[in-house]
Amino acid sequence: MNRKLCAVPRNNRHLIGAVLALACGAAVADTVYVTLEKDDAIAVVDGATGTRIKTAKIGKRPRGILLAKDGKSLYIAASDSDAIQVVDADTLKVAGTLPSGEDPETFAMDPYGKFLYVSNEDDNRVTVIDIAARKAVKTIPVGVEPEGIAVSPDGRWVVSTSETTNMAHWIDRAKLEVVDNTLVDPRPRAAAFTADSRQLWVSSEIAGTVTVIDTETRQPVKTIPFKVPGVTQEKVQPVGIRIDPERRYAYVALGPANRVAVLDAQRLEVKDYLLVGQRVWNLEFSPDFKRLYTTNGLSNDISVVDLESHKVTKSVAVGNYPWGAAVRP
Fold first, then answer.
1. Contacts of 127-136 spanning 24+ positions with Cβ under 8 A
2. Overall pTM > 0.85
3. Which terminus has fewer CB within 10 Å in the chain: N or C?
4. DSSP letters along 213-278, please?
5. Angle made by CA atoms 174, 190, 170, in degrees to the nearest 5
6. Is 11 helix (H, G, I), strand (E, B) or coil?
7. b/e per residue, 222-248, with b = 16+ CB within 10 A?
């Protein structure tokens, strides 16, 4: 490998540092941003060392969080402030707000970083936000109590899951209209596309399952149940989902079961359950996909999972009710 190529200028590392570090055989450092629902704050953790660096106050009841495509800003759903806050990723200062509708919780970004799609649970709608213009350009009626939302990497689909209607609603991203619906198990929560956009995975909290859906037909391929040894079934409540880019493994947070399920994403079967903190909500990969971070709402920490060994290596205290996580190289 060319040494000049590996010497990435510091001001460009947030864009291409992770890719070059992988190519150069180096470990990838990263910064983990964790929303703290009960502290009205965000915690910052060094992912490589598992050390909390600092905590900063932001809006009221922060939950969903995404990193901007340029790595300079964070978008945070401040639910009780009724806004998506734009936060400087370096200073953690609130730089502006985006009009999200009432009580935003979860949202997704299009592959080009131009639009956000926000679930408005109380209004049964999805709000589409033009990020640069900082305005809502459309609201789309969906099912009752929309929760999970995902955008396909190929830019074709936005999918909203409705907790009471028990459906995944397929929104044509060009038309911004619902064009199809897929029935799933009770109380669907999170939704995640595979990197090739060929599958959509939806977690169902009450049923204790994940439904894998073929994107082309919008029909279920398989419904995968979770049964954790020694844990009563009512505590197995799947929420957050992450799938690696090669679709080798998928990881599902199982809520009050205090476990993350490890699935073979080709065979669509459970391989293992990893014990993490209490009431695990959401998950996020490190940029090199060697670590997984879990937000554990009731133990007030995040767990660090080594993805080569599939072992939990560390717990990091972050503050009250950690909910969402975003990672910057």
1. 127/99, 127/100, 127/101, 128/176, 129/84, 129/98, 129/99, 129/100, 131/68, 131/75, 131/98, 134/96, 134/97, 134/98, 134/99, 135/99, 136/99, 136/100, 136/101
2. yes
3. N
4. EETTTTEEEEEEE---TTS-GGG-----EEE-TTSSEEEEE-BTT-EEEEEETTTTEEEEEEE-SS
5. 25
6. helix
7. ebbebebeebeeeebbbbbbbbbeeee
Cα–Cα distance for residue pair 216/59, rounded to 1 Å: 39
Residue 28, pLDDT score: 66
As a whole number, mean pLDDT of residues 228-252 equals: 97
Q: Say how far apart CA 222 and CA 130 lie, in whole Å.
A: 35
Query: Considering the chain, what is the average pLDDT of its residues?
Result: 92
Burial label, 326 (beta-carbon count in 10 A; 0-12, 13-18, 19+):
buried
At position 192, the amino acid (one-letter code) is A
Report d(CA 167, CA 186) in Å as an integer: 9
